[in-house]
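Good morning C.,

I know you're traveling, so I'll keep this short. The sequence:
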Amino acid sequence: MTAETDLLRIDDQLGDEERLIRDTVRAFVGDQVMPHVADWFEAGILPRSVLTELGKLGLFGMHLKGYGCAGTGPIAYGVACRELEAADSGLRSAASVQGSLAMFPIWKFGSDEQKDEWLPPMANGSAIGCFGLTEPDHGSDPSSMRTHAVRDGSDWVLNGTKMWITNGSIADVAVVWASTDSGIRGFLVPRGARGFSARDIHKKLSLRASITSELHFDSVRLPSSTVLPGVTGLRGPLSCLTEARFGIAWGVTGAARTCLESAITYSTTRTQFGKAIAGFQLTQSKLAWMAVSLYQAQLLALHLGRLKEAGTLTPVQVSTAKMANARAAIDIARQARTILAANGVTLEYPVIRHANNLGAVITYEGTEEIHALAIGQALTGISAYR
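The tokens, ready to paste straight into the viewer:
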């Protein structure tokens, strides 16, 4: 954000490493993504070459240590998510799925052999991962998943379907969560495993510059070495989602910032009734509230990063930020759309693309309602899920 619009100078709170990462990612998306992303969105594609470049920049699993990962702090990771999503939510989603949903469970719960096999190539972008939890009939209630695995000798046999899986059809490995006799377990399913197939989901009007797939497992036989040994139960996938939601809380502020800047630029150059529409009180009121809402979201994301640095961050704190910031971002995008008026619905400007994307972001990785219930339970001590 320029000095004229970042009135609270929030980025002054960043350290030298965090500013370097901000500037590096911002330059990359400015040169390699922004000139093309509207066309990718319209075509419904995200080139694999872009993911390769993200790996070369060290953005995959950058908050993890060892195995070729950058080992940066949480705020540096948040800043990277922000700058990626300033270009497009699909780009940030691809990166956060790779690092927080696919690499993190291997790093946290995997065996030494699994870490050695998968983490280095995933860190450099030569291997892509995906995360299979959501099912066609079970999103907010993963405990009711139907995907299951049963033992057959020393092997496991996996059956089921996963839905809305980012990077699914291009993934070299899928981290799949399935019910077993001993509880929910994580399985590393490699591309090409017999009985494993992926089909892309088309005709979506949100996150179009992102690969979204349906995964099918038809008696997929897996050796015991593919099971994540370090966790059993929902704690496994939910801890991954907490990692990813942290990135979302930061990322959406990038999309909101782009919308605000677009609205400011447009309103100062668009003339009606003999003057720029930025000179009308109603327009300035809209811009002021958009800016204040963005500052609040940025400060909440920064506070979240400080908590994570201190090792005290809790899932309900992440829920608070994901719910609040996703709502703030989509409201900013919608208000920016009104300032651009008819031009706000064309891909010549980034606003409608961000608004459409945020319509998915506000519901994925925990709907607004689910996060509200998590906060409500923390406030009252009463669970309202069932």
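Safe travels,
E.
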